[in-house]
Amino acid sequence: MIQVRGLTRRFGDTTVVDDVSFEVPPGQLTGFVGGNGAGKTTTMRMVMGLLGLHGGEVLWDDRPITDADRRRFGYMPEERGLYPKQKVLDQLVYLGELGGLAAGDARRTAQRALERFGLADRAGDRVEKLSLGNQQRVQIIAALLGEPQALVLDEPFSGLDPSAVDSMVDLLREETARGVPVLFSSHQLDLVEQLCDRLVVLRAGRVVAQGTVEELRSRGPARLRLVVDRDAGWVRDVRGLHVVDVDGPVAVVELAERPSPAADHADVRRALLTEGLARGEVVELAEVRTPLAEIYREVTA
Amino acid sequence: MNTENPWLLVARREVMTKLTDKAFLVGTAITLVLITGFIGWQVVSENDTETYEVVATADALDAATLLEERTADVDESVRVEVQQVATEAEGEAALRSGDADLLIRPTDDGWLLIGDEGVPGDVERAAATVLRDAVLAANAEDAGTTLGELQAGSEVSTDLLQGDAERQGFAQAMGVALAFLFYFAALGFGYTLAGSITEEKSSRVVEIITTKIPVRQLLIGKIAGNTLLAIAQTALLVTVGLIGISFTDYGGFLPALSGGLGWFVAFFVVGFCFLACWWAVAGALASRAEDLQTTATPLSFLMMGVFFGAFLFEGTALTVASYVPPFSCVLMPMRLLQGDAAWWEPVIAIAILAAAMAATVVFAERLYRRALLQTQGRVSLKQAWTAAD
């Protein structure tokens, strides 16, 4: 497990990462989201030891991380890091060897991975001859060489076409199935929502929200959508809720802040149902799942 | 080896990348061809003798025969073959048709050499000497003395306190050639090194590498790889050059110069490492290949200064500069080749150079490490130095 505690980094007078703490548990995909300049890349670089820390610490398995630990991490920098003029396979073997693999093992692993990504016939080509999507595949192969004990990936999905996104997702799932903690940053919120086990939301260098997607959803007030067979204006008189919108027979209401996570709003639901049935038919009463994008907008507002 | 000395992996990649680079191989081959060609031309032109067909009528035949016999004693690259013609008109016709090169005929006060379009200087000088000596000898005999007696006391010859002139000139030329080789290697491989560092930086592959190995190992590996390549290439060129020279008349000078050549190798290795550190910094200060021209400019000028210093420094300035890195890399071995440095002088100079190199490694590592991850345009030396880790 990667633990980040109170991480702080300044560039000149500006604090780019300010007291950031989060965890990347083993076997889980942790999504790192935030706008441009929120400090995601800086944080990841500090985790990888590329930038010095101005405060806080990074722990690996409950002890301060060492360069030897990081050497067995798979890392993918924000912009694509490969030698443009070197041949694909040679390059992967070199990076594998730098990561501590024996030359033969590095070659075998790299060849297997290239086959899997349908790039076996490009092994002898220079990287610059590959399309951007294929370069990114080579990049992820480089990050995965030698069964890394953790993965830190900066924007691994940017620039990938949908099928490449799918194979990347499969690949990351395999890694988490091995029990590897995976931290990746992305600004594609829909992707993060369907993919991630956990989320860390960063805004202006600070963590503004973190937890599982469900936990994040339950942070805000729960919303109900009520559909009846006539005008629903009467909901304004029901106690314990706040009307977001009434449009003819359709109403969206927000339940008042819960006193505790355990307390549900059975009384309010019952009041809505009873009142609705007393006035006619109730077609629908359902919880509205707030899209992640909206949660994100709220927490980063 | 993998985990203990990752710099070896880096150095190996540097070497292999260069050895599979066609431009590098072709460039080296062309340089070799030029060197062999130049020396080959020297060898050929040294042994080259020009033979001139001289035609003479009966009254000039004695003089012409004298030329045939004695010209080679005066100038070994000139030979004369004589052909008798019946009349001068026949001789002139032979000149016009190209069958003969020269016509010799007596005048009132000596001899006249006639060519078709010109009389080559070497044969003119040689003929003048041969004929003058012959006439002088005859005149002397008539006067009851000998040529030797007449010339007694008129000889002007030269001597040098240190070595002989030809050897000195050869040492000088050799020094300049080696200075050029150093310039060539330091600039060429310096640019390669800086360029490969900028490439790693602009493609961000350096971020991956430095999560796997320490920055120092990367720096050492790159410097080691390029130094090895530079030494190997220069050694190849020098070896071919020396083998070539041994076939010329200058070959005899080589054993006496071997000490100076040995020192050149030592200064080359330490000096190249010293400069390589700065090239690495120049590479790290640039974020893209376009920036490299700017960040490498001061170094390019320094390299030119070192090269031109080989010609321009004289006297005390030369002695002083031969201790100052990086000028010492070239100037001290040159002074040794010319035999005007005592044995302890290169020892001190190389110690200073090595100390400068050690200090440079420390500075360069700090600058390199801090500039490496700043990818927004050019980084100034000051920014790199004061940047936080």
UniProtKB/TrEMBL annotation, chain A:
SUPFAM superfamilies: P-loop containing nucleoside triphosphate hydrolases. Gene3D superfamilies: P-loop containing nucleotide triphosphate hydrolases (3.40.50.300). Residues 2-229 form the ABC transporter domain. GO terms for molecular function: ATP binding. It comes from the Bacteria. Pfam families: ABC_tran (PF00005). The keyword Transport applies. This is ABC transporter ATP-binding protein. It comes from Nocardioides aestuarii. The lineage of its organism: Bacteria, Bacillati, Actinomycetota, Actinomycetes, Propionibacteriales.
From TrEMBL, chain B:
Its main location: membrane. Keywords: Membrane, Transmembrane, Transmembrane helix. It is found in: Membrane. InterPro entries: ABC2_TM. The chain crosses the membrane at residues 23-44, 170-194, 228-248, 260-287, 299-323, 343-364. It is a multi-pass membrane protein. Residues 26-363 form the ABC-2 type transporter transmembrane domain. This is ABC transporter permease.
